[in-house]
Design a protein that fits this description.
42% helix, two-stranded parallel sheet, mainly alpha
Length: 229
């Protein structure tokens, strides 16, 4: 599955819920919805979704998307509450539009990557991920502590115990680590973190796999499975 196909399968959900309220919704529902906090217009979400697809599929730039979405918002007569004008809650601001664009594109890419990385050929050669920093941040989150807490929460199931942030791709730690409750990148907003494949030989060396043990090939749920129930 290609990233833009992931976005196409998401249903625009103009619930008006804020970020905290959305985080209380089951991850299986959230990952199948295209939404933005406190947005109540389906038309606005549909335009946002179409533009994210255009970026992933056709290479439309973020600046072009911001321009077109601002034009659309003006045409729709969008106006934020006076207290939120110019803040992250104002849909017209660069900061808010960039969050919408980046979060949705990163999640689509993350899901598509997990599908590729857990196919038989890939997971048998590289059964685990190493959690690494890809980009520096001025205020970096304490991922080492978050990793340790998540490992304990899943009783170290499929998690390396040698001090490295390494776990089998099938380990429940990934969902526990994620702010979004999903087992793929990103695990939080603008985190700067990424994943590296870990070879089967190293997984055996550090005890993630037994000497003759083969990695399990998971059956990923259909992306729309949660909407069929």
């Amino acid at each position: 599955m290609k990233p833009w196909e992931v976005i196409l399968q998401r249903a625009c959900t103009a619930s008006g819920l804020n970020s905290s309220e959305w985080e209380q919704i089951a991850a299986s529902v959230r990952e199948r919805a295209f939404f933005s906090a406190e947005v109540t217009s389906t038309k606005i979400l549909e335009e946002m979704k179409a533009n994210v697809v255009a970026m992933l599929k056709d290479g439309k730039s973020a600046s072009e998307i911001r321009r077109d979405l601002r034009t659309m918002l003006f045409g729709e007569g969008y106006q934020p509450d006076e207290q939120w004008e110019g803040t992250i809650k104002d849909l017209r601001t660069k900061a808010r539009l960039d969050i919408i664009i980046k979060t949705n594109t990163d999640q689509a890419k993350g899901y598509a990557r997990l599908v590729r990385d857990t196919r038989a050929g890939a997971i048998l050669a590289f059964p685990a991920y190493r959690f690494v920093r890809r980009q520096n941040r001025k205020a970096q989150r304490d991922w080492a502590t978050r990793w340790a807490n998540a490992a304990k929460a899943v009783n170290y199931e499929g998690v390396a115990k040698n001090g490295e942030m390494i776990a089998l791709k099938t380990s429940p730690i990934w969902e526990t680590l994620s702010r979004f409750g999903t087992p793929y990148l990103p695990f939080d907003y603008n985190s700067g973190m990424g994943l590296q494949d870990v070879k089967k030989s190293y997984c055996r060396e550090i005890g993630l796999l037994g000497e003759d043990e083969q990695p399990k090939v998971p059956k990923l749920p259909d992306f729309n499975e949660g909407l069929k129930k």
